[in-house]
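@channel anyone free to eyeball this complex?
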Amino acid sequence: MNVPAATFRPVSNDEVAMLGTQPIPVGPYHDPDYFALEREAVFKRTWLHIGHISELPGPGSFIVRSVEAARASILIVRGKDDIVRAFYNVCTHRGTELVAQSDGRASSFSCRYHMWTFSDRGELRAAPDFERFFLDKADCGLSKVAVEVAAGLIFINLAPEPEQSLAAFLGPLKAELEQLPCATATALAEYVYEIDANWKLVYDNFQENYHIRFIHPRSIGTATTAPVNPFGYPTRFEFVGPHRKQGLWNNPEHKLGSVQTSAMEPLVGDAMAAGFDALMANSEYFALFPNFFMLNSPLLPFSHTVFPIGPEKSRGVIRFYWNGEDQDATQRFAREYAVASTRDIHAEDRAVIEAGQRGISSGAIKHINFQAQEALCRHFINSVDAVVQAYKAEVALAGVSA
Amino acid sequence: MMTASILPDGFAPLEAFVDRWALTTSLERSRRRETSSLAEMRDFYEACAPRLKDALAYLDSKRLADFDPMDERLMALCLSLAHVALAVEIQGEAEPENAACRHEMRITRTTAERRA
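replying in thread with the prediction:
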């Protein structure tokens, strides 16, 4: 079989110069005050990826998810009317967290403290000895949270009234995401890690390829590097509002191991059968503001969400989106391999990200530096800082007028 | 006198690996890789990798729901090979230093496991 010779042309420095060329102050990557601003400016008013529609398969299905960045626990329920609703997971009697399980199926939700019971629509249905309160049940429903679904992905927005719909927020990327395996997936795999690092430092690691040849010489190696592209740089960058994308370069001459081949061949077969040929020919990586990645590959159809926990602590959640439960042993084997091989790569990053956090938090340097091929990192901090500065201005203005 | 088979016909050479590598969950498989030496994994790989295609072809002739305990063990060995092959084919001598990093990446669910 003829393998096309590898060719590559990197994005030029000029093409990304509009993002700026200056060093970046380290404050946003460790300062608790900056993190406090991000809680308000980013995480309490932006559409946040929180789950997948396959986790709510039928009426009464629910999931509960922590959003530490907003100090919130969120209950997401598919009602008997098939509508997906989200609420703060907080009893309206005295504020107790309502549901303790992370997922399940229920027709109502009872607070264990005083047995206030809420319907699948969040209404207060029953409360013991309620006539002793000075309340109307109709005023005691769970606090609602905006929730929308795009490409099978569930997003929430903690703003009381979001400034824009999810579709407007995603813009042209929504239609592109709808073409990916996540849009029709019905089965998930997942691995999770905690890390002692600021969420942006974690996120940045996964949007630059400069480190690949040093940190992933074996697990990625010649899959995306070659003499014509020794650093495995992307084929292109794209900036869409606060979101960004990169085209990934694959080395056509990369050789697979024997067991690896036995895993990849059925994954390719499944992807072709599902009509994902075009995706395989055009590798892309989506970075949705603020904390979500999605690889467009139908062979490794994973997302990676970086949840901030504190200024120097985060949680990463990697999820694979599969078309149906395993059909046979070969598919089961291939999917196990896909998950395990991606996990190897993410694991290699973890220690070096924490080392970066220790260095930044030491105060030894005032700035970090991004080269042109780290343009997505620069666009990211520009995007975060724009909303943080806008929020500060808004608060200052409110203070003046108050 | 033969003892009772623990794997389907034709896969007897893998029986010595059942105790160590026929595990129930993806998390257990990932953890077993972490606590195994590269030499142990090479032994398993050298026995199992050449039989992988035959094993999957045999298992594919049945529905997953119809697997008997011997089939389940053979399937579990194939799934462990997915993890071990990463150590043997890809990581090689770098396997020990990367094992500690992987410990922090907890597999919480896969399609190979039945959800309660």
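from a first look: The mean pLDDT of chain B is 94.
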